[in-house]
Amino acid sequence: MEPYNSSMYDLHCHMLPAIDDGPVDLETSLEMARMAAADGITTVACTPHIYPGMYDNNRLGILAAISAFQAQLDERDIQLKLVEGADVHVDPNLIAGLHSGAVPTLAGSRYLLLEPPHHVAPPNFEHNVFELMTAGYIPVITHPERLSWVETHYDLFTRLTQRGAWMQITAGVLTGRYGRRVQYWGDKFVAEGQCMILATDAHHPQRRPPLLAEARDAAAKLVGETEAQHMVLTRPRGIVQNVPPEQLPPPLCLQPGWTPDPKAAARRESVRPGRPAGFIARLMGKSRH
Length: 289
Description:
Blueprint: E1 8-13, H1 26-39, E2 41-46, E3 49-50, H2 59-75, E4 81-84, E5 87-89, H3 94-100, E6 111-115, H4 125-134, E7 138-142, H5 150-163, E8 166-170, H6 180-191, E9 197-199, H7 213-223, H8 225-240, H9 262-270, H10 279-283
Parallel strand pairs: 1-2, 2-4, 3-5, 5-6, 6-7, 7-8, 8-9
Helix pairs in contact: 6-9, 7-8
């Protein structure tokens, strides 16, 4: 294992100024960049939304924005390397856009960020993921733990992992920045070996900051330091280098004989939100958990 304090890669970050719902101006972007560098992040994938009709970004525009922002970082000696990417929504023309070069993958690799709808489970999502894989891409599904429908579809994500899709959990989720419900599901993905990478999904210096080290440390309490390091360095670096997935450390759930640590399960339950009390429980002054 490499030294635990080595560099980290953040492959889901909205840091480019005035291109989507991230920072509105250059100064805010620069503040985010300084925070990321101070946290130990050395490589950032700039991943603005591509959502037809709302954020009509494309690869050429994203590359131009990255080049301009990298020049600003270099001028100020902010030690971050920027690579391309996009937070891509499911769209009937997605594969055609990837083949034509209009839609960027992560650092030009076979891996791409795929964002599911937040509030509605799409009926063909599993099929869409397999179509991308058949076309030669590895979908990295973003923040499944934050979807409102994860409670009823957790088994969908475990099936996708078994078939070769990757899961990216949001860093701040593991430290409680998004509340107990989302932390429960983030911990579950990590503790049950279903998380391949952690990323910040940062949008703002204060509200959604580009901090990764605290999440690495939280993940280490669930699955150990080696696996936590894989989530923020080994696998993300492999993505940037376009390493085939079979040559990278597999997720824990696919490792023969691996079972979740009971202590990790206990920690996960400790942040599980309480359920509403039933009538009898309320009557007796008790609540269910």
